[in-house]
Amino acid sequence: MINKVAIQGIKGSFHHQVAQEYYEQNVIVDECLSFEELVDSLLSGKSDQAVMAIENSIAGPIIPNYALIDKNNLHIIGEHYLQIHQNLMALRGQRIQDIVEVHSHPMAILQCMDFLKKYPYIKLVEDKDTAETARRIQQNQLKGIAAIASITASEMYDLDILAPEIQTIKNNMTRFVIIKKENSFVVENEIQRASIKFELDHKRGSLAAVLNVMSDCKLNLTKIQSLPKIDTPWKYSFFVDVTFDKYEDYAKAKSLLVIMAEYFKVLGEYKNTK
């Protein structure tokens, strides 16, 4: 039984929407204004599971979140894809011509830059959360300030949408992962996706050899991301997502990678939802 789910942001945020869709409408959430706070909620036992954005189809991977999952030995137990609709909103009665500042999460601002460039006189201010910005505008009756957030946030905090669907690319998708402290048992024939981390010897061809093993074992590489090892100059950790039709193929690849890599770790094995 899940008592509480940690989300980054407040009610009305995209994380909140994912929690409602992945679990159920009346899910109890712990509102966290940073991903670090979200992880602390899990580690302290305040929350049972958490929803964490991991990559966006426009802005790319959220690299620090991979590091958070790895550093704190958290487990990915599921995933959820959400179509992102960004909207410009402000107090009722305001017009775009009245706006002097737009506040939102840096990822949301980045996703809407083509629209925002049409208004060079508007100052862009990065904030911790899309929905929290919308709520603050309403609570403090901030005129001349607009937020970029979801339609749900505009309805929840009674703001007018000045411009709908302002994201640069209309097919804007974010992938979220579901994480917890302990791994969840999933029967092998239901596992079609894995997130892994490995470190390789710094020599020519080491990464190519690993990729060849994945290909030979019929794994589909859906993402690869490298992060430098801070304590070891010029060495990198690789975070990789793979999908597969048969668990046996993945298990074979895993047994080989354990031998080939200097360090190998499974971050999660779970159902593929896309």
Give an overview in words:
With 274 residues, the protein is of the alpha/beta class. It has three domains: 89 residues, D-Maltodextrin-Binding Protein, domain 2 (3-Layer(aba) Sandwich); 77 residues, D-Maltodextrin-Binding Protein, domain 2; 81 residues, ACT domain (Alpha-Beta Plaits), CATH 3.30.70. 28% of the residues lie in helices and 32% in strands. It contains nine helices and 15 strands. The strands form three sheets. Strands 1, 2, 3, 4, 5 and 11 form a six-stranded mixed β-sheet that branches. Strands 8-7-9-6-10 form a five-stranded mixed β-sheet. Strand 3 and strand 4 form a beta hairpin. Helix 8 runs antiparallel to helix 9. The chain is elongated and about 65 Å long. The model has no long low-confidence stretch (mean pLDDT 93).
SSE arrangement:
Layout lengths: L4 E4 L5 H9 L6 E4 L2 H9 L5 E8 L3 E2 L1 H9 L3 E9 L3 E4 L10 E4 L1 H6 L1 H4 L6 E4 L3 H10 L5 E5 L1 H6 L3 E4 L9 E8 L12 E7 L6 H11 L3 E9 L7 E8 L3 H14 L2 E8 L4
Parallel strand pairs: 1-2, 1-3, 7-8, 7-9
Antiparallel strand pairs: 3-4, 3-11, 5-11, 6-9, 6-10, 12-14, 12-15, 13-14
Helix pairs in contact: 8-9
What's the quick description here?
Residues 4-181 form the Prephenate dehydratase domain. The chain has 274 residues and is α/β, with parallel strands linked by helices.
Query: CATH superfamily of the largest domain, called what?
Result: Periplasmic binding protein-like II
- Report, as a whole number of angstroms, the end-to-end distance: 26 Å
Shape label: elongated
**Count of individual beta strands:** 15
Give the overall average pLDDT.
93
Q: Strand-residue fraction?
A: 25-35%
Radius of gyration: 21 Å
- Helices and strands, in N-to-C order? EHEHEEHEEEHHEHEHEEEHEEHE
CATH class of the largest domain: Alpha Beta
User: Which architecture of the largest domain does the CATH hierarchy give at level 2?
Assistant: 3-Layer(aba) Sandwich
Tell me the domain tally: 3
CATH topology assignment of the largest domain: D-Maltodextrin-Binding Protein, domain 2
Biggest pleated sheet: 6 strands, mixed
What structural class do helix, strand and pairing data support?
alpha/beta
- Helix-residue proportion: 25-40%
Low-confidence stretches: none
Number of helical elements: 9
